[in-house]
Amino acid sequence: MKGNLLLLPASVWFALLLVIPLLIIVEYSLGKRGVIDPVHFTWSHLRFANYKDALDPDRLPIFVRSIEYAAISTFACVLLGFPLAYWIARFGGRFRNVYLVLVVIPFLTSYLIRIYAWQVILQDNGLLNRLSGDLGLGSHHVFLNHAFAVNLGLTYGFLPFMILPLYASIERMDVALVEASYDLGHGKISTFFRVILPTVSPGLVAGVLLVFIPAVGDFVTPSLLGGVRTQMIGSTIADQFGGSQNWPLGSAMSVLLMLFILAGVFVYLRRVGEEAL
Amino acid sequence: MSDPDRVSLAFIWDTASPHFSRRAFMKTMAFASAAGFVAACGGSSKGGTTSAGGSTTPPTFDPKPEAKTLNFYNWTDYIATDTIPNFQKDTGIKVTYDNYSSNDELFAKMRTGGSGFDIIVPTDATLVKMKHAGLVQPLDLSLIPNVKNLDPRFRTAAYDPGNQYSIPWQWGTTGIGFDKTKVGGAVTDWDAFNLPAVSGKSSYLDEARDAFAMALFALKKDPNTLDSGDLDAAEQYLIDLKKKIQKITSDYQDPLKSGQLVMAQAYSGDVFTIQADNAKIEYIIPKSGALSWVDSMAIPKGAAHPKNAEAFMNYILDPKVGAALTNFVNYGSPNKAAEPYINKDILSNPLIYPSPAELAKLPFQKDLGEDELAYSDRWDKVKTA
User: Using a CB-CB distance cutoff of 8 angstroms, which residues of chain A are in contact with residue B200?
Assistant: First the structure.
């Protein structure tokens, strides 16, 4: 009983800042929109039509694009993050913590400022184009406000969330397993897929979830690095609370997105195995 | 620090000291001075010309006179250097001046309440929203006799007819900003977005009413229409135009300056500011018409010094004060009586002072109340397309 008291601060925190706001979103999603009062909610007139509107097939391309961008950036994070995490864990030596701090250091600067910095790097006469011009690769590439910039921004922004759990898993891995695999005649590739990957899968699963989930719903990155053809579902939801003046629809879309992601996570964990976490 | 002081300070940390009461007293003193220091910081952090007696709560009841202070919240770089000092000299009212840089920022601050400001300067569309949300209070025009100096256009404007809630500060238009060296053609009207050199290098505003006004002007329709046929045509216009632009954004200033965008639907004042850094950037008021915008002084509901605020509004409407303001910030003045004192190069600039014939094509955005949803819904379709 005494030990349960330890749960109190977190319970209060979650109740106030997670459960109650979630219930408010659900309430809003069943209300009627307005200009002067953004939401009119009455128990007698629950408007489930908001959910029907949220599933409007016109929005499907935006939704598919969000999944696509999130998948691309998650994959890129694995490709970039795995070797780095592996190197830090296995070969970082006594500087391991220094390297980890370096991974985390970007968080000391506001994400907005870092994304504005990317705008400067990626713009038509920006750093990247000048560099590519100096290398003789042409200086008139279009990066900013196109899909490339959004995927790059998402990958950049969420990479540390991939590296940290991967590092934790790899660091715990017994190196003797790898050596045993070599001794028993497995090559490098076979050892990677049959020994290393299964051993570090808890970190990989956690990393994939930590990158994919926020990437699907992100709206800052596509608004600042994207253009007319890179709208993501997060921006569409944000629009409902802005120019589209439809808080109930925005809330319904948020609820559906949440349910969809929860279902996706459930299926994913079933497939890769819950024990992996 | 003198010796006795050092001795008494030492007692604060000496719990075994017989001077207990004295120690407690010193602790209280230390706390009080710390509180005073914090209060002083809070006062001076407001920036600009800070009021002296910041910690006293001013009386808010009518019978008592208001404290001689005024908390003014205005856009950045939007005032003449002598506007506030002269007001302080004339009236003895101390002005605390603080700045914001977007209507959203202002609105958010007002919605959370308790900001302590007595005058704010929202743009017309935001003023309308604040009016509906009950965030601003009606003015006592009997305390603002200079309201007669206003251009009649600003006394009857659709966003606040009769100046019940607001006194205009400066005004401008929502037209086209562009880089004259890169557009590859003459820019005179909204169809300039079709210039081949501009393709994929332009933007329109991420504001439903502003974007629709552009489409409606281009289609020679009323920019405040509620006719669903006209609105559908405007929606289609924006969807088609979306294929030719780079971005829907209200954040076009830096991209226009750097060359990332060569053309943008833009607010006149922003473009004049960019022009100061990049002379290649120009602004035009499109031939078929454009919306006017106006930033207006208003009093937040529950403000502590409404009479001082009204005195300030009356002061701004003085012909010479209004002219000095416009001469400094280079926007249009709503103050008709100020015109004799305004610099000739401002008065003769048709982009700041359009001819009467052009003025007729520069209406204000109208408050449509709940009917605005007709725009919001179509805007959602444009953004989704």
Answer: 142
